[in-house]
Amino acid sequence: MSGAGGPTTVVLRSAYGGRNGFAHVASALSRAARVARIILVEEDPSNLVARLSESGRRVIVFYGVSTPLYLELAGEIERVSRIAPVVVGGPHASGAYWQVLRLGAVAAVVGDGEAAAPAIVESLSNDAAEWPPPNTAVYTGSSFRVGRTVLIDLDDYDPHYPQLGLYPPIEIMRGCSFRCRFCQVPWEFKSSVRFRGVESVARATVEYVRAGRRDIRFVAPIGLAYGSEDLKTPNPSALEELLRAVRDRGGRPYLGTFPSETRPEFVTPEVLRVLKRLAHNRRISIGMQSGSDELLRFVGRGHGVEEAMEAAATAVEFGFTPVVDLIFGMPGESEGDVEKTVEAMFKLASMGARLRLHSFLPLVGTPLARSRPKPIHPLYRKAVMRLLGRGVIEGYWREQEELGKLMYCMTALDPAPTPEPKPLKGAVEYCSGVWRGMSVARLDPYREIVESLVQ
Ligand code: SF4
What we know:
By secondary structure, this protein is α/β, with parallel strands linked by helices. The protein is 40% helix and 16% strand. The protein is globular and about 65 Å long. The site of iron/sulfur cluster has 10 residues, from α7.
């Protein structure tokens, strides 16, 4: 795409301690013939990139960004793109690839990064290679193009990258067969669900334990769905096999708790018996999201309130502490829905559950990305004040109330891959207000978009 080239130095830019997020991509890049060196940095790489380029090295800089991180790093991505090819991956790039490309990134990763990253390096060095590479979006100067989709097999890639000391929670499941309209997972991975095999987990565990990391955590959209054949009901023997493999190799497995939370349907007596024997955690994170059946239906959860209550009660019965996720202010939430959710909060607290509270975030790339967040309902504030004294509240619901407005604006000001940004109706006025009211650093490129649209 951009001329012939020799060995490439890849710079991975991590921020806020998110180093582990690069483990899969580093593991894939280390096998790419053209990659001579992988460097991981935790600060603006401009000087490093300039030095490497001056000494004649080919350099490509990779970012991995969620939307909050993108808000922080947008200015830097724009600056670094002027001195070296920049590739941006992560949930924000997947859901709004045109935004990162408008900043000057040469490619945005829109699916499995393990397939995209080595192919991007190859294409940037070899004019004859595929462009856009698989799982990648690019800007041609007049339009946006998205390459073909390639779904990788998790077993083909290590979950960790010891050479850089990256030992993240082991990813045991990617993609989700449910369709919650607020969630990025089913849309990001085209709904395809893949599991990592027990053998691969066992091999990784040996290395984690050898490196002194006995606590083995997993990452999965629904941790207790591991090995499920119909993706709707649990498979206790698959869970047993997984946990045993970790234990037999000296690891202490944590499953069904962050970051491998679960849905109510998967919290059954059979599953809890297995966890009790083999898992190290005594907390189970259960996604309930609302105390209203109507709202659960509206956001496409696919379970009711009763099932979630039962799951929490079963967890308590088996000696686990259920940590129940609830989201305040989901689109379509009525006064009655709020009352029902508050009622559920008190009921759960009296059962012995903890509540992990969230404010609705209009995540990019989801069907609800264009929904403007509402202020937190006063009934929720009152309920939280009363429950705080009982020590059962956790979560970042307060911070997310502000973040939600910014996230909405990211989509509302530039909602689609059109040649020029076409803001949603009323977005410019609303978002210029949001911008003025907040002191978010390094937002200059987006502030400029807003200001130019306001003029
Ligand atoms: S919220 Fe959970 S169950 Fe729903 S789509 Fe996302 S990962 Fe799947």
